Amino acid sequence: MKLLYKTYLTILLVMMVSVAFSQEKSIIDQLDEIAIVDQKVMMPMRDGVRLATDIYRPKGEGKFPIVFSRTPYNFNTWGNGEMNTRTMQTALSWVEKGYAYVVQNERGRYFSEGDWDILGVPLTDGNDAFEWMSKQSWSNGKVGLLGCSSTAEWQMAVASLDHPALAALVPQGYGAGVGRVGEFNEQGNWYRGGAGQMLFTNWLYSVQHDPMAPKLPKDITQKDLLRLQRFYDMSPEYPRIDSKEALSHLPIQDIIKNQNGPMGIYEEMITRKPNDTKWFEGGLYHDDMPFDKPSFWFVSWFDVSAGPNIALFNHARENAVSQMARDNQYLVIAPVLHCSYTRATENTMVGDLNVGDARLNYDEIITAWFDVWLKGEKSEVLEKMPRVQYYTMGSNKWQTSDVWPPADAVMTTMYLDSEGKANTLNGDGKLTAKKPRKDNPDTFKYDPMNPVTSYGGNVCCTGNAIDGGGGSKDQSEIEKRDDILVYTSDVLEEGIEVSGFIESYLYLSSDAKDTDVTIKLIDVYPDGKAYNLDETIQRVRYRDGYDKEVWMEDGEVYEVKMTPMSTSNYFDKGHRIRIEVSSSNFPRFDRNMNTGGNTYDETEGVIATNSIHHGGKNLSRIVLPIVK
What we know:
Layout: H1 2-23, H2 27-34, E1 35-44, E2 50-58, E3 64-71, E4 78-79, E5 82-83, H3 86-96, E6 100-105, H4 123-134, E7 139-148, H5 155-159, E8 166-172, E9 180-181, E10 184-185, E11 191-192, E12 195-196, H6 199-205, H7 222-228, H8 243-247, H9 255-258, H10 266-269, E13 295-300, H11 306-319, H12 323-326, E14 329-334, E15 349-350, E16 353-354, H13 362-375, H14 380-383, E17 388-392, E18 397-401, E19 409-417, E20 430-432, E21 442-446, E22 485-488, E23 496-510, E24 516-524, E25 530-539, E26 558-561, E27 565-571, E28 576-582, E29 608-613, E30 621-627
Parallel strand pairs: 3-6, 3-7, 7-8, 8-13, 13-14, 14-17
Antiparallel strand pairs: 1-2, 2-6, 4-5, 9-10, 11-12, 15-16, 17-18, 19-20, 19-30, 21-29, 22-28, 23-26, 23-27, 23-29, 23-30, 24-25, 24-28
């Protein structure tokens, strides 16, 4: 009898849970109660092109502020015969807060008309969208921009046009929108130090639309689009590829073609050099463009673009047109991968490194930001908000500052030194506060057919091409390669916080016409594990600027100033500070074939004999922002 009673009780509980679950309202029902949903609105641009737009706005007669996301990604409600609710969930959360949520595809993407050009979408599309939205009867005339990665990269350049309806920005992981800012000349993350970042080669394989792909009739109606979106989402289905194998193909310009991938903008963009005029014609923000909008910037330490992203925050704060805008630039730097802010947990793993509880209430922060700038409300959250919130790894805590780098960071020089045998982690390379008097150069062979493989790192969008994925990984096994020079400090007798931009100056000689120099900043734990923090590269032909190519001569020693690295890390007592120097970090960056050729159309390279000098007048060094 007891057993029968327990069985009955179990069945009853299951039935109750099932009934409760069935009574939960669907996202459609929840939206229907509070929102007017208007999908596949074809918003007109000045040249007649129409952009597919979904609008979710509160019911009622009021006028509402607009949170606007424009994206190259697919937000169609249906895909593969099933309903996708992610966009609707986001829309519901904003409508519940009293906002209209508008999401739109860039021209040439999915149901939007026109031709797509990554990083080259006309800025006027943004202005035309602001104009149209601000004039709707349900709009209060204020628009705020929200998005991460490619949904954020267009925000800064369009803000330079200063449309009056654009009230505030929230760009996250926006490096692909940065062209030239301060010491960074990235042209939308296409370059780092003049070397190609291969993320776009892999990303464009699965993103660019082939110009021969079918298109809908130009005059198609909203009624027809609403019907068709249940059966078609206009999304190409590219076969999966082995990204590691794909990116190894030469020449680089044929990588997508070699995978039978789509034709598109890649074949043209890969031929552009860092100072090509076309980089200055599209949707990139360059530091000679005006900026005058309140902005809340979100950056992550292990993103591909932490350095230029922070530099753009500093640029806007120092150079915005009005004092109002200069006083309303805010920054959050989290210890996560690209656009992974909300994935932080109580024990946040970034690669193989546990950086502790890196959670932050992003919803509260962003809502408060828009409440102030789009609704005109006061916010205690924003009034108490520090100008910069940054996460320090190692000590694993959020910290605040009024400026970046923190005002109490002191630039401190550490010099490379050795007896000429710094090759591998078992060599005699040292990182020391004392200037070495004698130059005992460290020499290695760089073979572009056998490059140093990327392991972890500050990456995104490379599929399985990067061993271990992104983030912080133990580099000690890779450091056994003879073509990696390793310089390590003594064991720290007390902890050191490094927060800010890390400068590097390396003195190089080579028997090649051109080559690359790479560097990594490493935190070495007492057990010998060596966790990478940031990395950079410099193509030596661009050492004197990106407007010209200057070749090396055998026997000459050249100073190479590296593009700055960035981090906030506490090197604990008992740890050591290390840097790695080499000439490749592949496929994070493309390979220099050492010939002085175009790189993108080369299939054969030459082995370079490269030497790093570090004594006398050739003081190779790094300069660390140590917080006192």
